[in-house]
Queue: 3 jobs
Job 1
Amino acid sequence: MLKDFLKTVFLWDLVQGMRLTFRYQFKKVVTMHYPDKEKWVPYDRFRGLHYQAVDEEGELKCVACELCARICPAGVITIEAYEDDKGVRRPSVYEMDLHRCAYCGLCVEVCPEDAINHGAGYEFAGFDRADAVMSLEKLLKNKPNETDPEKMGTVASARFIRDKDGIRVEEDGKKRYRWW
Ligand code: SF4
Ligand code: SF4
């Protein structure tokens, strides 16, 4: 009874809570400082934003066989084909509506030319629904900057930029470490 009374008078529960709070002040910070100071560089197996690959000569690898569009369970991919002057099928339209994409990776698995791939991109939130509709031009630009497996699965120091081109988080190359 007296003990409870003294605990109430001396705000013992508050003291206990503050003790716990201060103990955490001196522990190693494990929270990633995204987007102001750091960003996550996913592992190379990560299924991120799709991109279209080109060969050593810079030619589009895609032969518009439409296998990716056929296997896609969500009807994400639209392809229109034409035959170029060498008689090779190419896409005149290759469009992905990523609103519907489940990132299952089937389109990548089935592609006989390694043309459509998952990159490491995950920062593709937009202000407009059209931002998530990827034309062939956009897919060609989506190739990830970082492809070195040694550097993937890490936290890189970065800076948050807001300018006329929009907002983005860019690595500054100062620091990189493994999170675990
Ligand atoms: S990842 Fe899956 S859902 Fe998305 S486009 Fe490819 S097959 Fe379709
Ligand atoms: S991305 Fe691959 S599977 Fe899809 S149409 Fe082009 S070559 Fe065929």
Job 2
Amino acid sequence: MITLLPLPVEAKEFTVREVTGADCAALDALYADEEVRKYVGTSSAFTRRPGESPDAAFQRGHVDTMRPAAIAAPTGSVLGALSLRRYDGNGAEPGDFEITIALRKDVRGRRIGSDVRSAVLDALRGGPAVRRVIARVAPGHKPSLHLVQALHFTKIGEQPNLHSGQLDGVFALDIN
Ligand SMILES: CC(C)(COP(=O)(O)OP(=O)(O)OC[C@H]1O[C@@H](n2cnc3c(N)ncnc32)[C@H](O)[C@@H]1OP(=O)(O)O)[C@@H](O)C(=O)NCCC(=O)NCCS
């Protein structure tokens, strides 16, 4: 597996780190959330089990597994999860990886999503594998739209979302 993102990524309010067995219950609760199911889906990179190899996840049908990570508070509690997976949808180019963030409902709207994305983009800059970071934005999803605009992503097209049945906007940011 290509190491895309050197972990941990540290920031004042959170750490992006490897998932451990102790995170299972928190991640199960995260994926059970209605908005996460709608916008992120259940067959996402997040559902790779701790310690499970990408091959095993692939065998279970979770093919989009590159680098699941936990977003943890300084206390250690799981605030959310992040994935990077190869993007091969409309407008894809070699070195495109899609970033997906899902936060617990009670910590949304506190700039954690913005800060995680900025910290992860910084950590990816200069790395060997990722040329462009891709973000998919569901129609009318204001927090995600604000995020891509604030970080100067450019819209490159649209892509059907299998989970929501809607057409997502596809945004790209050159980082290398
Ligand atoms: C999408 C998500 C990651 C954003 O993280 P967040 O920490 O909640 O968002 P932030 O507090 O950093 O806000 C980002 C921007 O959206 C705006 N925003 C936040 N919540 C909003 C809301 N309910 N309505 C309108 N705008 C909103 C903020 O003002 C901010 O805009 P600005 O940068 O112009 O000031 C988070 O809400 C989430 O996990 N949602 C559920 C799962 C999901 O939909 N993931 C998206 C798939 S990538």
Job 3
Amino acid sequence: MKSAIIRQISPSIQKWFLRELNVKPDDPTLSQKGNVLGELLCKYGKTLVDDSSRARRQLQNLSPGMMSLLGDLPEPKDYVHEEKKLEAGSEDYCFLRNLFLSSLKSHRREYGSDEMCATALIDVVDILTVPFPEEQLKQYRTTCERISKHELSEVPMPMDTALRAATSASTDVNEYFLFHGCPWGAVDSIVKTGFHWKHSGKNTGCMYGQGCYFSPVTSKCDQYSEVDEHGHKVMFLARVALGNSLPRWKRCTDVTTLGEKYHSICAMTRESEGSVDHPEAVIFQRTQALPCFKFIYKHKASCNCFVCTKSGP
Ligand SMILES: [Zn+2]
């Protein structure tokens, strides 16, 4: 017999909690573990609140302009729609550079291989604010309002290492700052009209459907970015409203939309018995993400990461 609390949550989330508790769905002791589930729900709820206040503290030294991008979004009329190169060495620049570099991870040399590569050695060349159009900002805000009307009935899947939006709004639409690598040819279109799955470039698989992929792990997104004639690559840091995120343990390539109840797919990592090494999230509506910063970077000549060894010297 399942406890009341477990009946209120979807089968996918149930599976996740059952694994946390290390019990089978038909375990007769499950009903007695109902309060443990309750505690788990509280624990993750509390983590979200803690994360948000930690993010706010981190942001104290940043400029008001930066704060408005990482915290409560400005009104469309107040947003400065100009590309601005952040001054190297400034608090804003160092904060974002650190976020980028600290999100580089080790990866498998090849798909299916057990050999993990060295963490990439990267030089950040420039960080710029993205001059997205007023219309994009309006659409993003409208989308967040729409999502906030749906009660986020389930515990949002944690994106452990990602920066959460430090909003003061009482409604939480599960907003994260996530990276997105793309070919140079897609940059203008992303800035003007937002992210679209067709921009993702030839290297992109569609493991979790025909959506737009984001990750807190820069080295994961790096695979989808291409070098220009200077060896420079480009990556966006976007504000993404994940809303009710549907966890997926296995590939589901045919998904094109999620309907009303869910707003994103969250790929579970191998650590959680999923299929990927590092977390990623997929959205299917372009208005759920706002490109906020553009990183120009390059791999150092001495880099021995899986991307460099694959593409050769
Ligand atoms: Zn490399």
